[in-house]
Amino acid sequence: MRERKTAPTEGNKSEQNTTISPATGLTPQQEQACILLASGESYTAVAQRLNINRGTLYKWQDLLPFQCFYNKQCSDYKAEVRNALLGLHAEAVDTVRELMHNGGEATRLKAAIWLLEKVEAVEVGATDVREVLKAQHTEPIIDLPTTSLNDKAYRQALKDLGLSEKADV
C-alpha cells in the first residue's frame, strides 16, 4: 500500500495521512463513501458520518476509481435485490395468477410491476477501473481493423491513481 498525504483543503475536515488501496485506488474513507452512497444514503448523511464536507463527495465523484468502485457497489446491491426478487418469484407468480382471476387488486399489481421494472432498469456503469483505463489508452491502428494498447500510458495512469497492475480484490 502506498502512503499519500492529503493537502489541507477547505472541504476536508479530517486532514491526515491516507492509505491508497492498490486494488481500488481509493482511501478507506472514499471506499466507505461509495458503499454508503450506493446503499442509498444521502450526500449530507454520508458527509456527516465521514466527517467531511459535502463538496468533497462531489469532487470525489469526478475520480475514475471512485466512479468505478461506486458502480461496483451499485452492481452488488442490484444483484442482491435481484436475488431477493428471484427468491420471491413463486409468490409473485402466484399473486399475478390470483390477480388475473381477481380484478379488485389492480393497484397492487401495478405497484409490483412498477417496482420490478425500476429495479431492472437501473443502469450500472463500469466497475473495473483497469478495464476503463485500458480502453482509454487503446487506439486504433491507422488503415487496420485493429487497436493497440499504449502500455506506457496505461501503466502511468495506474501509477498516477495508486493502482497495482492486477486487482487484488
The helix tally amounts to 8
Q: Unreliable stretches, pLDDT < 50, 5 or more residues?
A: 1-15
Q: Helix coverage percent of residues? A: 55-70%
**What's the β-strand tally?**
4
In the sheet with the most strands, the strands line up as: 1-2
Protein architecture, described:
The chain is mainly α. Among the domains are: 71-121, no CATH class; 128-163, no CATH class. The protein has 8 helices and 4 strands. It has helices spanning 28-38, 43-50, 54-60, 64-87, 89-101, 106-121, 129-136, 151-160, and strands spanning 2-5, 17-20, 138-140, 147-149. A two-stranded antiparallel ribbon has the order 1-2. It has a two-stranded antiparallel ribbon with strand order 3-4. A hairpin with a 6-residue loop joins strand 3 (138-140) and strand 4 (147-149). Helix 1 runs antiparallel to helix 2 (43-50), helix 1 runs parallel beside helix 4 and helix 7 packs across helix 8 (151-160). It is flat and about 65 Å long. The protein starts with a strand and ends in a 9-residue tail after the last helix. The relative contact order is 0.12.
Summarize the structure.
With 169 residues, this protein is mostly helical.
Essential attributes:
two-stranded antiparallel ribbon, flat, 169 residues, mainly alpha
Topology:
Elements: E1 2-5, E2 17-20, H1 28-38, H2 43-50, H3 54-60, H4 64-87, H5 89-101, H6 106-121, H7 129-136, E3 138-140, E4 147-149, H8 151-160
Helix pairs in contact: 1-2, 1-4, 7-8
